[in-house]
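In response to reviewer comment 3 from the previous cycle, which asked for concrete evidence that the modeling workflow produces usable outputs, we include below a single protein chain processed end to end. The sequence was submitted unchanged, and the resulting C-alpha cells are shown without manual editing.
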Amino acid sequence: MLSLLLLISLLGYSASAFVILQNILKNKVLHPAYQIIPAALAVAAHGWLIIIELAGDDFDHINISSSLAIVAFLIAALTVVKNNQASNLFLKPVIYLFSALTTLLLVFIPVNWGADISVGHGLVFHITLSLVAYGILALATLYALQTSYLNRVLKNRKGHILLSKLPPLMTVEKYFFNLLALGTFVLFLALGSGFLFLDDMLAQQQAHKTILTSVAALLYLLAVVLHRTSGLRGRIIVVITVLASTLLTLGYFGSRFVKDFLLS
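The workflow returned the following C-alpha cells.
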C-alpha cells in the first residue's frame, strides 16, 4: 500500500507540474483537467500516506520528514482548492515538486526517530497549530517572492514572452496579505498554546526555538501592521516576510534536523 500511494503521489505531482510548465513555457494550452486531476490524486495519496506512516507508529512521534510532509500537504491542498486562480500559476510547479520530494522523505526516514508526542494532548495541539501556521506562512512567502518578481518584470518590461501568462499584480498582493495576516494570527495562537500547555518553552533545549519563533512572529506582525496602517507594500514588506520565514524555518526545522539526524 505504501509503495502504491508513494507512486501515485510522485506521478501525480510530477505530471501536474509538467503540464503547467508546458502551458507557461511552450504556450501549450491544455485542458485544466490534465493538471487538476493528477494533482488532486497526488494530494489524496499524500494525505493517506501521512496517516498510514504516523498510525504505524501509533501517532507517538513526529520528525522533520513527517513535519515537512504535513506542511507540503497543506500547501498542496490549498493550491488544488485554488486551482482556477491565475495568481498561483507560477507557484504550482514548485509546490508540487517539493511535495513529491517530501513524500519520499516521509517513506524512507523512520518516523520513530522524532520527538515523542504521546505525552499529552496539549503538545499535539501546539504542534498542529505550529504546522498549520508554518504552511500558511510558507505559502504567503512564496506569494511575496512572486510579487517581487512581478514588480521587476513589469518595471523592466523584460521576459515579454511570459507577460501574457503573468497573473495581475494586485490579485497576487491581495492573496499574499490575506495569507500573511491569517498565518500570523495562527502563529501567535501556536506560541500561546506552547506557553499554556508546555512547561519547557524556555528550557535550555527549547529556548533557541522559542526565541527564533517569537522574533519571526513579531516580524510578521510588523509587516501586517505596516500594510494595514500605512498601506506599505513592495520590497520592504517582502524582505521582512522572507527574513521572518527564514527565522521560523531555522527555529523549527533547524532544531528538528539537529535532533532527528545529527543527534540520533
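The mean pLDDT is 84. We consider this sufficient to address the reviewer's concern, and the full set will be provided in the supplementary archive.
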